[in-house]
Amino acid sequence: MRIIYPYLHIVSDEPLSHLKHLYKYKNTKQFRDDITQLCRKYVPVRLNDIIDKKNSEQVKKTAFLLTIDDGFREVYEIIAPILIKEGVSATFFIASNFIDNKELYFGHKKSLLLEHCISNVSMQSKIALTLIKYKLYNGNVIESLKRINYNTKDVLDIIAHDIHYDFESYLSEKKPYLTTEQIHWLIDKGFSVGAHSINHPRYSIISKEEQVRQTVESVRKIRNKFNLQYGAFAFPHSDSGVSKNVFKKIFESGIVDITFGTAGMIADSECRNVQRFSIEKPLWPIKIILFKEHVRRYYRKVNGLTKISRM
């Protein structure tokens, strides 16, 4: 059985300030069309089918496992109802610190500050002073904010304090992430859930020890909280910079059964790490994205790039 692994983050018909300056996303019609197209050529499978490989001989057509990252509430409100209607399973990957809207991801903080900064130009001089103080200013406030990463994320809270922007109010009012109750509902409906790190760092800029901790601890928290018999993990952003030894420690923990990257249709030297491709970057119909991914896979094959190697 050959399986493809499409992934996305969110589906919404509304503008969302916490995502506006990060990436674009598909609306409900685009998502429905994608699912319809996928089901015409591929058989949907469940996460356990991948982990256990029990049903591989029974599936005649090429299969797909849909995965959705970041654990937005739109999973519960929009995505899951569409998938239930179409008879499609999916796996939802959730950063453990964000469940129940207890913490706001730094990238979403950045998008909110960018929106506030663009809408209130008078704030830019005060923001510039803070950026200068922490040696993060490059001559342009907007571009400097965009360059803030996981390792410099604390400055976002300092800026918010300086300009009296309240992240906690946004969290409590908008509730962008899934709640414990909603996740239980998803599991009861037959969906699977996995971890997406503790607080969504880019693995290529954190230490190897932190890579292991973010992975194992988040999977442990998700498994314990929802009494799961499996441990699944999707790397936030990508698995670039994750070494063979890190994978060894992750799987030796006994907590993690399978992991997922974002490198497209390509095999991985770590057999329990599965590569996925985005169906929202760019916002093309799935038919075009699939064609592009197959062409990309063929190009890699011709050039001898059939598998990701790890040091």
Keyword list:
globular; 2 domains; five-stranded parallel sheet; alpha/beta; three-stranded parallel sheet; TIM Barrel; single chain; 311 residues
* Strand elements, count: 13
CATH architecture of the largest domain: Alpha-Beta Barrel
User: In the CATH scheme, what's the topology name of the largest domain?
Assistant: TIM Barrel
Number of separate helices: 12
- Bulk shape: globular
Nearest-integer average pLDDT:
96
Which structural class do you get from the secondary structure elements?
A: alpha/beta
Q: Determine the fraction of residues in helical runs and give it as a percent range.
A: 40-55%
Spatially, the strands of the biggest sheet line up as 7-6-5-2-12
Strand content: 5-15%
Q: Are there runs of 5+ residues with pLDDT below 50, and where? A: 54-58
When the domains are counted, the total is 2
Kindly provide the name of the CATH class of the largest domain. Answer: Alpha Beta
Find the CATH superfamily of the largest domain.
Glycoside hydrolase/deacetylase
Strand/helix succession:
EEHEHEEHEHHHHHHEHEHEEEEHE
